[in-house]
Amino acid sequence: MSRPAAGHLVIAGLLASLVLAGCGSSEAVKQVTAEDRFKHAKALFDDKEYLEAISEFNVITVQDQGSAFAADAQFYLAESRFMRGEYLLSAFEYNVLRRSYPASPRLPESQYKIALSYYNLSPGWPLDQQYTKKAIDEFQSFVEYFPKNSLVPDADAKIKELNGRLAGKEYQTARLYSTMEYYRAALMSYEEVIEKYHDTEFAPLAFQGKIELLISRNHYREAGTEIDRFLTRYPNSVLKSRMESLKQTADGQIAAGHNVDSNAPPKPILPAEAPQP
Questions:
Q1: Could you give the number of structural domains in the chain?
Q2: CATH of the domain at 147
């Protein structure tokens, strides 16, 4: 056999080997089932290898959407984000499960974790409360749709806590308006705390702020009405003695003719438009 012919046979043999090797590799890839990949991803999750787990769970949610493991993969994808402290991403991924797999037994926990993700993003009351409001909405949805779930008491407690943050924010806004002499805006903010957040620690303080502002502007009759309202709502409040003292002041001024019906008009409540907080 000539040298060129022998060379061609060697090349053909090498090509055949590569083709067979490629086929074998392809078959090996095909043998990685959704179940196998999920077990591997879950093992990574259990070992707290969350970044690697995210990659594997992502593959399942994309390539095996119709498999029996897709919903759980989506849940643990969200869990991995949550455990990494990536709360915006975890809220998004839990929400994907809520939309895409509404029959999943993971749905109640996912709804709760959406709320908890926003809860973890909620700052103290001096700061912007966008995520606080989102967390309240999602916790309320959880309580509404899953009223018998064991996590409902915790959700209720967190709603109360978050409402306290919103109340604190509004109360401080009222005080700021009062300091800046935007009196009508201050009264409106105090009233919002009183009515909207009546079960928080800031509601009695808002009453006090509103009443003291009314008295300072010579609106004694209105102040007296608010004091009576306070004492009816909070008969055992630690502020009771303060309210009774303010009541005496208001009644005394009214008796002396210093009220909104007297010849001397009250000081105006609204000197200017209040800015947005």
A1: 1
A2: 1.25.40.10
> Who contacts 46 (Cβ-Cβ below 8 Å, separation ≥6)?
none
Calculate the CA 192 to chain-centre distance: 21
Q: Cβ distance 81 to 114 under 8 Å?
A: no
CB count, 10 Å around CB of 229? Answer: 15
Rounded CA separation 55/48 (Å): 13
Domain enclosing residue 169, as ranges: 122-277
Provide the b/e sequence for 140-164 (b: ≥16 CB within 10 Å).
ebbbeebeebebbeebeebbeebbb
pLDDT tens for each residue of 247-259 = 999 999 988 887 6
What's the pLDDT band for 268 if we cut at 50, 70, 90? low
Q: In this predicted model, what pLDDT tens digit does every residue of 75-96 receive, in sequence order?
A: 999 999 999 999 999 999 999 9
